[in-house]
């Protein structure tokens, strides 16, 4: 007979002994391992070497919470690290808030916390504080996570969504659409000839390599919800410029291309979780590409477009078959709950 599974109960969110047991027996060992947890204070003490800080927060409600290549634990950690890195900041601390549905399996929670702990150790960035709440069964969807992060801004680095300038080139660090297709395959039970894995990854070391290498970056964004199309449209609008993309140069895995064709999706609108868009002067492109391709997360980096003198906010794309098309932000939710 199979043993009974441990489940999260409302008592685990009461603040009493069950809450302390949950933290001490499940969350802390998974997040911190042999290193041990920081003091259990009401707030974390963060030592910052600069007064110029970046701060961000995000909430993760992905469904399903586990997918090929990752789960909601490493996704939440990496996503917040990347939001800090896109401003040119070095992430130094992450917080975590859990909202658990009554009846969530303890083994599943351990799996999520272990993924987050491993991501934190790989990134070298601690989870310094957290909170856990439990809601009645049916009032949530298994598990939601909020993560916030603090990072130290580099002196002399000015990277803004509105920083793109005429003549700049646009670079991406790899293939698009991997995360969205991985989540959809898990949710819908789809099977492709070649498996599609999420690209979830922390990008701060790739950004650090570029900035340490002296690359001048005007704008940097990670194309998550809404994919490449949404991010490029946002940069064009915020910077009051026009952008021309070249579809032939946009990296795309064959399996993702096939899945998008089968499902009637545009890969440019499908979500990513380990990709970044750089906008920088053309004179910096060769150096940037060289640095990026020397990093594990940038081996398929490519120049995919440039900033032009066209109509402000307009994004066009030179297609594979010739001619060009206007790129707009997608309407509605194409792939619901991918993060």
Describe this structure in words.
The chain is an alpha+beta fold and 339 residues long. Helix content is 29%, strand content 22%. Strands 8-10-7-11-9-12-13 form a seven-stranded mixed beta sheet, covered by helices on one side. It has a four-stranded mixed beta sheet with strand order 1-6-4-5, covered by helices on one side. The longest helix has 18 residues, at 106-123. The model has no long low-confidence stretch (mean pLDDT 92).
TL;DR of this structure?
This protein has 339 residues and is an alpha+beta fold. The chain is built from eight helices and 13 strands. Helix 1 packs across helix 3 and helix 2 packs parallel to helix 3.
The CATH class of the largest domain is identified as Alpha Beta
Count of beta strands: 13
CATH second-level architecture of the largest domain: Alpha-Beta Complex
- Which sequence of strands runs across the widest sheet? 8-10-7-11-9-12-13
Give the proportion of residues in helices.
Answer: 25-40%
The fourth-level CATH homologous superfamily of the largest domain is PurM-like C-terminal domain
- Rough outline: globular
Strand % is 15-25%
Average pLDDT reading: 92
- Low-confidence stretches are none
SSE succession: HEEEHEHEEEHHEHEHEHEEE
| Main beta sheet strand tally, sense and closure | 7 strands, mixed
Oligomer: single chain
**Total DSSP helices:** 8
**Structural class by helix and strand composition:** alpha+beta
């Amino acid at each position: 007979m199979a043993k009974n599974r441990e489940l999260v109960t409302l008592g685990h969110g009461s603040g009493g002994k069950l809450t302390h047991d949950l933290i001490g027996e499940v969350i802390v060992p998974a997040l911190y391992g042999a290193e041990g947890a920081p003091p259990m204070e009401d707030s974390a003490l963060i030592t910052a070497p600069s007064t110029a800080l970046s701060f961000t927060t995000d909430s993760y409600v992905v469904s399903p919470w586990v997918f090929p290549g990752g789960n909601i634990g490493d996704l939440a950690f990496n996503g917040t690290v990347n939001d800090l890195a896109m401003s040119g900041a070095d992430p130094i601390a992450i917080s975590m808030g859990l909202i658990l549905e009554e009846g969530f399996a303890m083994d599943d929670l351990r799996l999520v916390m272990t993924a987050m702990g491993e991501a934190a150790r790989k990134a070298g960035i601690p989870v310094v504080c957290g909170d856990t709440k439990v809601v009645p069964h049916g009032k949530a969807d298994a598990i939601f996570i909020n993560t916030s992060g603090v990072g130290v801004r580099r002196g002399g680095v000015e990277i803004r969504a509105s920083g793109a300038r005429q003549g700049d080139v646009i670079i991406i660090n790899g293939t698009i659409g991997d995360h969205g297709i991985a989540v959809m395959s898990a949710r819908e039970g789809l099977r492709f000839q070649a498996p599609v894995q999420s690209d979830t990854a922390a990008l701060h070391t790739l950004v650090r390599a570029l900035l340490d290498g002296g690359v001048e970056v005007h704008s940097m964004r990670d194309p998550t919800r809404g994919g490449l199309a949404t991010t490029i449209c946002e940069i064009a609008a915020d910077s009051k410029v026009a952008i021309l993309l070249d579809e032939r140069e946009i990296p795309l895995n064959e399996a993702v291309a096939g899945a998008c064709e089968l499902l009637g999706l545009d890969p440019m609108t499908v979500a990513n979780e380990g990709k970044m868009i750089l906008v920088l002067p053309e004179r910096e492109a060769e150096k940037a590409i060289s640095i990026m391709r020397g990093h594990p997360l940038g081996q398929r980096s490519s120049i995919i477009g440039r900033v032009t003198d066209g109509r402000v906010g307009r994004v066009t794309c030179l297609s594979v078959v010739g001619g060009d098309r206007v790129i707009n932000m997608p309407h509605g939710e194409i792939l619901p709950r991918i993060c």
